[in-house]
Amino acid sequence: MSNFICPVLNARLTSPFGWRNIGRGREWHQGVDLASPIVGLKVPIYATADGRVTRTGTLGTYGNVVMIVHTISGKIYESNYAHLDRVMVKLGDTIKQGQQIGIMGNSGGKFGIHLHFEIHNGRWATGQPNAVNPMKYISLQENGDELTMSKYNELKNMITDLQNENVALKNILENKLDKQKNRNPLECHKEDWAWFKANGITDGTNPQDYVTREQLATITHRIDSFNTKKFKK
Hints:
- The chain has helices at 149-182, 190-198, 210-232; strands at 12-15, 18-21, 26-29, 32-35, 44-46, 51-58, 64-72, 75-84, 86-87, 94-95, 100-103, 115-121, 131-132.
- The chain has 3 helices and 13 strands, in the order βββββββββββββααα.
- The strands form 3 sheets. Strands 1, 4, 6, 7, 8, 10, 12 and 13 form an 8-stranded antiparallel beta sheet that branches. Strands 5-11-9 form a 3-stranded antiparallel beta sheet, with no helix packed on it.
- The protein starts with 11 loop residues before the first strand and ends with a helix.
């Protein structure tokens, strides 16, 4: 097993470590940008090595991040995974190499869906003084030549979860609409709703939103009653 592995399966290197200019002037890029093999695809992100989660959440232009500290051959390293769409670990978690820690995204200051990945010789610090070129530690092909059964199952379960979430949301919306259509008027609106129908202003079904229709009936009825009393005087 390598000390470090690529955090993206079949990754494409879209921006290397070092000086670059991507439209904002010359700037130092303290990591590498890795994209999925299919442009725009949000894929799983895996831990580059065993370690412990030292940071999760939003961090400036990094967007959603996960940071993991590693001890390898007695030396301390820290890896940073930025622009995530979803974080799947929490602070203090013990992580195994190759464990999924998040989903690739485009949060923070970014240019398209990708992973900004850093390795630090020592701990991460503001200004990234310990940043080193990750390509000296990882290979884009070492964990991308084959899709293992465990990773296949992770992807399959993720798709199933998303499908279940969509079905659940659809059911909630449909139930809410059914309740709005079939619910009887509230007690305080019954007289006004009956008057509304008796005067031919509605056939009893519209407006569909029961709150709106009852309030409309009440307001109309009370305006009519006010005008009737006023003209009788």
